[in-house]
Amino acid sequence: MSAISAAEKVDGFTRKSVRKAQRQRVQGSSQFAVNSSRPAAPEISALPQLKDASSTEQHALFMQKLQQCCVIFDFYDTVTDLKYKETKRATLSELVDYVSTNRGVLVEPVYPEITTMVCTNIFRTLPPSENPDFDPEEDEPTLEASWPHMQLVYEFFLRFLENPDFQPSTAKRYIDQKFVLQLLELFDSEDPREREFLKTILHRIYGKFLGLRAFIRKQINNLFLRYLYETEHFNGVAEFLEILGSIINGFALPLKAEHKQFLMKILIPLHTAKGLALFHAQLAYCVVQFLEKDPTLTEVVVRGLLKFWPKTCSQKEVMFLGEMEEILDVIEPTQFKKIQEPLFKQISKCVASPHFQVAERALYFWNNEYILSLIEENNAKILPIMFGNLYRISKEHWNPTIVALVYNVLKTLMEMNSKLFDELTASYKSDRQREKKKEQEREELWRKLDELRLQETSAIQNNRHEMQFTYSNKNNNNNKLHDKDENTAAAITDRSESDTWAE
């Protein structure tokens, strides 16, 4: 352990920054554990080009190049093995072109070699984040140092899966459940470039390996549950949801109980996650896809969202309102009737929010033609729910933009049902008058109570003064009597003494 300098002992921040710099200098790539005593990477010799080899030699050369690419280099060490790193990069690039442009190269013996090469290069234990307080919205992600090689490995594997000669029946012996589990864990990588490749590759595997579909869905569910109730951290949630969006789109009708359970137990609770902003667009798309598949799920979904509606986070409220508008865009009129009352009670609260973005987003519902038609059909139910807050905000809200939007909404509602609007206006004004009268009566009652309290206080003080005065008079009388008794006793004493002298 290195000695700590005097400056470091005095300044804790200096010591912390020095330790961080030392840790960064010795930290290896997530792909390679740095060890000062590790053996040097074997030399990689430049092999002949595949395009220059004869057709009989190409297969053996292809296998040899795959084996050669299983050598791993440390990219945090920027000065060693430069020649061999470049040789491997060129070889990987050549393999990508070879698989993309040639037919008949995917014969059975190459499948294990390809999967071995891919597994060796991409599967590794992901390191913990360098920043324990990493915020994906604010902080820059840590990029994979070995990306120059890893990118080409991912591209090669993707071309392998998309090759017309690819045989899932042969590949399933190597791309199995264990392979998929390791692939899913890689979605926690901080590098967005890697997650993008993983998303495409997992989608291809899901499409080609029918036997793995249920397993993939189950394991994604498990990762979601772990994220929700244990770790509260996983970098690949948005990518998983993007894959699931296209999977949901392909579900057959009627929906299985498994799929409905996924909606209610996974997708709806995901709205409570702290990092909702990172994947809300993909989450809302999945929810809407379910409702387009089965409109009868609308009521339970809307009530589920209302149950988890944010209480203290205005940013989340804006997101929830946006998602609710997407749901209303695809809702059927019969389903709308079932949820209109609880939904518009919440919208009314949002309209009355002091946070202008929440109020503004709620008022934008009236700019949507389809939602407006639903409101018009059910104005007898919706207008009484919305009117009170709208009328009050038009007089009291601090933001002039919100006041202008509210006036437009009130005008629209008045045009829908002028008779009901007038009744609600009169009722609102009479209610306000009653409230003012009650307030005045309450103030008058408190005024009288204050007067009574003052009178009682004054009476108590007067009684106290009288008692003090009486007590003082009594003391004075007692003193006078005491003096008189003393004088009488003195006179008797004097007389008795004089009688004694006379005798």
TrEMBL record:
Stretches the record annotates as Disordered: 1-37, 470-503
UniProt biased composition (Basic and acidic residues): 494-503
Gene Ontology MF, one: protein phosphatase activator activity
GO biological process: signal transduction
Residue stretches of biased makeup (Polar residues): 24-37
Transmembrane portions of the chain: none
InterPro entries per record: ARM-like, ARM-type_fold, PP2A_B56
Pfam families (alphabetical): B56
Gene Ontology CC terms: cytosol; nucleus; protein phosphatase type 2A complex
Assigned protein family: Belongs to the phosphatase 2A regulatory subunit B56 family.
Protein name (database record): Serine/threonine protein phosphatase 2A regulatory subunit
Natural source organism: Phoxinus phoxinus (Eurasian minnow)
Upper taxonomic lineage: Eukaryota, Metazoa, Chordata, Craniata, Vertebrata
